[in-house]
Amino acid sequence: MSSPASTTPGTVWLVGAGPGDPDLLTLRAARLIMRAGLIVHDGLVDLAILAMAPASARLISVAKHRARHTMQQDEINALLVTEAQKGHDVVRLKGGDPFIFGRGGEEAEACRAAGVPCQVVPGISAAIGAAAAAQLPLTHRRAASVVSFVAGQCKGLSDQNWAGLAGVGRTLVIYMGVATAESIADKLIADGLSPAMPVAVIENATRPAMRVLRAPLAGLPSLIASERVKSPAVIVIGEVCAEPDTEQLRALALEATT
Predict the structure, then answer these.
(1) At the topology level of CATH, where does 127-241 sit?
(2) pTM, entire model
(3) Parallel, antiparallel, or unpaired: how do β-strands 233-237 and 90-94 relate?
(4) Check whether domain 12-124 has CATH 3.40.1010.10, yes or no
């Protein structure tokens, strides 16, 4: 990687760390982490992933929480640019995929505006990782041919236009929706979605503490409250979340043993 004394700007690598399990890193992401001199990371990046970095690497946390941010986004942008202008290569390590609710687009724009080289290394997104770990197909020939990703933690939620995002034949995946689950359920039902539509909440996806909780849409707020669901969690809404057919599962298990 570039020497700190170099007058040539270093490269900012926007790297997706995936949903949590280190085994789900891409090979390119793993290589960059293992040779990194400077890692600027989110709070959701698993400690086992950070442990892959060299002992000499500088690790800077820019963790964001609902009520408290270690750094504001403009400050993070400035940090990346400043370090690269010093000649350092920077691994900007982000949970999931940098360009899916990861603000990677803003960081890439800041780098381009400053003349700093920027490369993007995609990661398995939280939605894809969570659905796979829970064995919930986001698309299915008999259940869904459309998938939508939305952010549930945004201002003016009631004013957002979610028309057509959820319903028969469609799957809706909501990021950052734990704190606004009641408003989300009320909004979708008011927009015409059946209160009985199946919902799955996937907490700590791909990690040892992962939980998959199910309820009808109308029961989503009480489920999150009673189970004390915490972030990171994604909410999946649609027919793909229906409980498995237990009779079919028994038949398959019997077939496998005969």
Answers:
(1) 3.30.950
(2) 0.86
(3) unpaired
(4) yes
